[in-house]
Structure formats: C-alpha cells, structure tokens
Amino acid sequence: MAELVLSALLPVLFEKLASTAFKNIARHNGIDAEIKKWQRSLTQIQGVLTDASRKEITSEPVKRWLNDLQHLAYDIDDVFDQLATEAMHREFIHESEGIGSKVRKLIPNCCTNFSRNTTLLNKLDNITVKLKDLVDEKAALGLRVLEEDQPRSKNKNRSLQTSLVNATSIVGRKAYKLSPRSSSMVKAGLKLPNLKT
C-alpha cells in the first residue's frame, strides 16, 4: 500500500526538485547542496521500491521502512511548500515595500526571520538524517534494484504478438461445414479451415 503512495509521490518530488523556480529558491536559501544530496538518496530509494513492495507482505521491518519513507516523503513535500511560500512572501514584501514600510519598521525583522530560518534549518537537518538512515537501512534489509526496474532494450527477448489464430488448433463441429456461413465461403471460392471433430 505504501509503495503505491510513494510511487505517486516521488515523481512529484522529483519534478519539484528539477524545476528552475525551486532551484532558485534553494540557491537563495543556501541549501542547494543539501537538496542535491536528497535527490541522489531519493533516486537510490526509488530504485528499490518494487523489491520493497514485494517484501513488505512477508517482512514487518520492510513494511515499517516503507511507512517511514512515506512519512518522510510527506515531510519533504511540506518543506518544499514552506520554501515556496516563503519565496512568495519575500516577493510580496519586496513589491509592496513602499506601502507599509513605516508599519514594518516597527516590527523587528531580525527576530521573525531568525525563528523562521531556525525552524526550517532544523527541519532540513532532521530530513537529511532520516533520509540517510533510510538509505542505510535499505542495504541492511537487503533491498535491491530488480531486473524489471531496469530500462529494457527494445528488441531483447520481445515475444511476437499477433492477433491471428492458428487454424489447426481450432476445435469445432461438423455442423459448421454444413452451416450457411460455410456454404457461402465455398461459393465465394474460399477454403474452409481444417476442423477437428
């Protein structure tokens, strides 16, 4: 179950990580190196999701690992949303700087920014530690990338597919030969299939 949620959530996280806007936000906050580490770790984890989903049925530790990963993915998504919200807030403040500058001067800016940044940095550190633990635990649980998860070459072991039926394997009745359909086939000069009785 957790694998289904993760297989839907991880591509969304990768899409956010790859976006130019998010890269700019991360660079502005000085966390771009940490975000790249997350991306590498998440890529490693994504590779073993199929194996984990098979093993979660019989292994309680794998089930817990997937559950922890699911919660961590939600935490990462929350941090991404928080970063985007702060970026929009900064942009809004910058655009409306002339309107309420007198009111804003009354509120000490350093105190509000410090508490927000400290909370965010704590969340980032917490996620980094949890992600590293999950990557380490992945190896301890014996999770590996399965062959079917690897990209396949187009011609390798491809079975031939056809909609044609082998007429020699059709089992029918003698009455078919006497049916109106078969007599119209004979009149048209078409050969009747060799039917077994």
DSSP E strands, number: 0
Shape: elongated
Question: End-to-end span in angstroms?
Answer: 50 Å
The pLDDT mean sits at 75
- Low-confidence residue ranges: 152-157
Residues in helices, as a percent range: 55-70%
Domain tally = 2
CA radius of gyration is 31 Å
Structural class computed from helices and strand pairing = mainly alpha
Biggest sheet, open or closed, and with what strands and sense?
Answer: none
- Oligomer state of the chains in this structure: single chain
Strand content: under 5%
| Total helical elements | 9
InterPro entries: Rx_N (IPR041118)
Protein name: Disease resistance N-terminal domain-containing protein
Keywords: Nucleotide-binding, Plant defense, Repeat
GO molecular function, one term: nucleotide binding
List keywords for this structure.
mainly alpha; plant defense; nucleotide binding; nucleotide-binding; Disease resistance N-terminal domain-containing protein; repeat
